[in-house]
Design brief:
Layout lengths: L1 H19 L5 E7 L9 E6 L12 H7 L6 E5 L8 H10 L7 E4 L2 H4 L4 H9 L11 H10 L3 E2 L3 E7 L2 E7 L10 H4 L8 E8 L13 E5 L7 E2 L3 E2 L13 E5 L2 E5 L18 E7 L2
Parallel strand pairs: 1-14, 2-3, 3-4, 4-5, 7-8, 8-9, 9-13
Antiparallel strand pairs: 2-14, 6-7, 10-11, 12-13
The structure holds fe (ii) ion.
Length: about 280
């Protein structure tokens, strides 16, 4: 009797984490007050690690909901596609998202590489830096640019958002490519609200520049499996445990690590860590 109850619970948890939770995204609203360089509120929709495949699948309605938010800015912090077949889906969905002052994107390791099962195991178990099969990243970038997305690869862009001077900087993928902070942070100034987009927060371990105000990142997927009182069992970061997800301070910068909206094909279950999109409101 007791064994059938235990087996039933195990089956229910497995079913939930494989079939329900990965397909149950949430929209979180986060208000960040006291931004000294901002005179009027700025809204930002942050998406990360969507891992688009052939179709939007169960998240179609969620993306339609996101398309009605109309924030000031949209940030996508890498792993937007899982492999080449996700390019068309990504371009279709992203082109449907509207932001008053533009959509900005940085690339992640999955945008560059097609991590099929064996590569994925090599990456996670043997610590291999990159997979063998490459995605058609140049096609992905040109398609994104065609629909008006600002793809920031070690570069920055200055703009005015409701009269607030804002600098948006983006690095190349810190997991598999070379970050060049000199180029990425060009234009950094005490007068602008300086935002940095970087796929993996660990890239900041090498950051010696000062003056970045806010960092948006992803890559960790929040650990995907959370247990009560313990939190994430597996965390893909060299930083302390808390940086696996959420809003924190690091080197005097406000940093946010997204739990992501998707996951790779091989390791996709989620438990206590729903996929998320986050709508920020930054206020004076
Ligand atoms: Fe990812």
């Amino acid at each position: 009797m007791i064994w059938s109850i235990i087996l039933g619970i195990i089956f229910a948890v497995l079913f939930w984490s494989v079939f329900i939770e990965p397909n149950w995204p949430r929209l979180r609203r986060v208000k960040v007050k006291g931004r000294k360089k901002i005179r009027t509120p700025i809204t930002i929709l942050h998406l990360s690690d969507i891992h688009f495949v052939k179709s939007e699948g169960s998240k179609r309605a969620f993306f339609q909901r996101l398309s009605m938010l109309n924030p000031d800015l949209i940030f996508l912090t890498g792993d937007i596609i899982d492999y080449d077949e996700g390019i068309n889906t990504a371009v279709r969905v992203v082109s449907g998202l509207r932001a008053r002052y533009g959509t900005f994107l940085v690339l992640g390791n999955h945008d560059y590489y097609d991590y099929h099962m064996m590569d994925n195991l090599r990456y996670h178990l043997a610590g291999a830096k990159s997979a063998i099969r490459k995605n058609n990243v140049s096609r992905f970038i040109s398609e994104l640019k065609r629909i008006g997305v600002h793809v920031l690869i070690n570069e920055s862009m200055r703009l005015e958002v409701h009269g607030n001077p804002v600098l948006i900087c983006g690095t190349d993928d810190p997991v598999t490519q070379k970050i060049d902070f000199e180029k990425a942070l060009r234009g950094l100034s005490p007068q602008t609200f300086n935002i940095l987009l970087i796929h993996h927060l660990d890239g900041l371990l090498k950051l010696s520049h000062h003056g970045v105000d806010f960092v948006f990142s992803g890559h960790t997927h929040g650990g995907q499996i959370h247990f009560p009182f313990v939190g994430a069992l597996y965390r893909e970061t060299k930083l302390p445990r808390k940086y696996v997800d959420g809003l924190h301070t690091y080197k005097n910068m406000t940093v946010f690590v997204s739990r992501g909206l998707g996951a790779g094909r091989t390791i996709f279950p989620r438990l206590g860590c729903r996929p998320e999109a986050v709508l920020f409101e930054l206020t004076p």
